[in-house]
Amino acid sequence: AHKTMKGQITVTQPGAVSSAVGGSATIKCTTGQNVYSSNLLSWYQQKDGGVPKLLIYTATTRASGIPARFTGSGSNKDFTLTISQIQAEDAAVYYCMVSMCSHSEKQSYKNLGWTL
Hints:
This protein is an all-beta fold. It is 0% helix and 53% strand. The strands form two sheets. Strands 6-5-4-8-9 form a five-stranded antiparallel sheet, with no helix packed on it. Strands 1-2-3-7 form a four-stranded antiparallel sheet, with no helix packed on it.
């Protein structure tokens, strides 16, 4: 699935990802053009329609309080969120977000679509 947002950038992602408790899951985010700065790539977790929670920023850096079993990797067009030692509370929708502007601006786009 994909969605084209303002700026003609496309994000492509798989459908639902499943894993047993204690297992691992890999969620991929592929952009239609290079993300030239990893500073623009982040991952969020959203549970039950609540407020999205920042997991990873600058493609690889865990946000404060996020367990080490959440790992971000990738560059250019291909990025990955890996969740290891999955726990029941990890069931959620996971979002890849790419900023479309400078850090001083507020506009951005996000296209998420992975349900674990």
